[in-house]
């Protein structure tokens, strides 16, 4: 009596004659007597609902299906379900065994980011879970992705200027042997834009779009966005105004009536400093200086 397969079916991507296929592998229950396998391929059509795309009966411990861009497209989550039965007694079936869902397409890792306005760079990995085919004979074994950012702001506000900056506007996914869940990968760094404005936490998204793909499979495909939450940090302010009254970052107040060029502010951690120039503006009546110039790096 057949109860279940020895191993859960596993889906792996492969290039077959230059076209992207998915392979479902499963182990035979026992070598004798001969066993047949019924393999049902399906895709997630909506949350919790599957749509059948292919079915076959085979004596082989594997089954292939092509990512043809019609029945199976990039962006689909694909399953294979395998049932074993003895040749000649198809009514004696094993329990169907499901593979884990295989997401075919572009993935961002991590799938979402939470960063702060502190100038730190955060690495975002872009990978393809399917092999990159080579439609031509030249060095076209790559997919170029155009990256863009959009500030979604808050629900009560209109979108503003970008809240995140990327280290590159395009990345190339170069064909390489599939390893783990990646068949091609590239990295880009994401940094929050320090806007010196107390605008609260804001949400942006990073999008990717294939650029002029020659492979039909990639033409109508738009990968999922990455949500980036930017945590607002308080901004420090210092002032020098009129006949210079000075207020420091930590709130100290004093006056400076000297004439000349002075260093107002310098950062210990980055190339940032501000110089001010003060001139005599009191005449003969009083020794008073006024701001007349500023230089910032």
UniProtKB/TrEMBL annotation:
One molecular function GO term is:
signaling receptor binding
> Is Signal set as a keyword in this record?
yes
Keywords per UniProt:
Disulfide bond, Signal
- Write down the superkingdom of origin: Eukaryota
Q: Which GO terms describe its cellular component?
A: cell surface; extracellular region
Q: Which Pfam families match?
A: Ig_VWDE, VWD
Cell inner membrane: is it a keyword of this entry? no
Domain named VWFD is located at 236-297
Q: What is this protein called?
A: VWDE protein
- Source organism per entry reads Nicator chloris
Query: What taxonomic lineage is listed for the species of origin?
Result: Eukaryota, Metazoa, Chordata, Craniata, Vertebrata
């Amino acid at each position: 009596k057949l109860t279940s397969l020895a191993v859960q079916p596993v889906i792996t991507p492969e290039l077959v004659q230059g076209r992207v296929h998915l392979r479902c592998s499963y182990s035979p229950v026992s070598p004798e007597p001969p066993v047949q396998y019924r393999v049902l391929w399906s895709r997630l059509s909506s949350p919790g609902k599957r749509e059948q795309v292919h079915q076959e009966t085979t004596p082989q411990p594997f089954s292939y299906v092509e990512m043809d861009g019609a029945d199976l497209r990039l962006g689909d989550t694909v399953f294979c379900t395998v049932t074993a039965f003895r040749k000649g007694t198809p009514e004696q079936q094993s329990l169907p065994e499901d593979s884990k869902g295989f997401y075919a397409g572009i993935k961002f890792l991590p799938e979402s980011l939470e960063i702060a306005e502190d100038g730190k760079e955060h690495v975002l990995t872009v990978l393809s879970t399917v092999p990159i085919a080579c439609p031509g004979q030249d060095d076209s074994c790559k997919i170029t992705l155009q990256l863009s950012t959009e500030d979604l702001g808050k629900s009560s506000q209109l979108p503003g200027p970008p809240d995140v900056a990327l280290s590159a506007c395009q990345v190339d996914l170069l064909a390489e042997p599939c390893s783990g869940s990646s068949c091609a990968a590239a990295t880009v760094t994401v940094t929050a834009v320090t806007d010196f404005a107390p605008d609260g936490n804001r949400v942006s998204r990073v999008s990717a779009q294939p650029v002029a793909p020659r492979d039909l499979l990639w033409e109508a495909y738009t990968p999922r966005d990455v949500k980036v939450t930017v945590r607002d940090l308080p901004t420090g302010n210092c002032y020098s105004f009129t006949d210079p009254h000075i207020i420091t970052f930590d709130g100290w107040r004093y006056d400076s009536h000297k004439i000349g060029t002075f260093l107002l502010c310098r950062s210990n951690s980055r190339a940032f400093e501000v110089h001010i120039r003060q001139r005599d503006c009191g005449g003969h009546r009083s020794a008073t200086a006024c701001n007349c110039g500023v230089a910032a790096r």
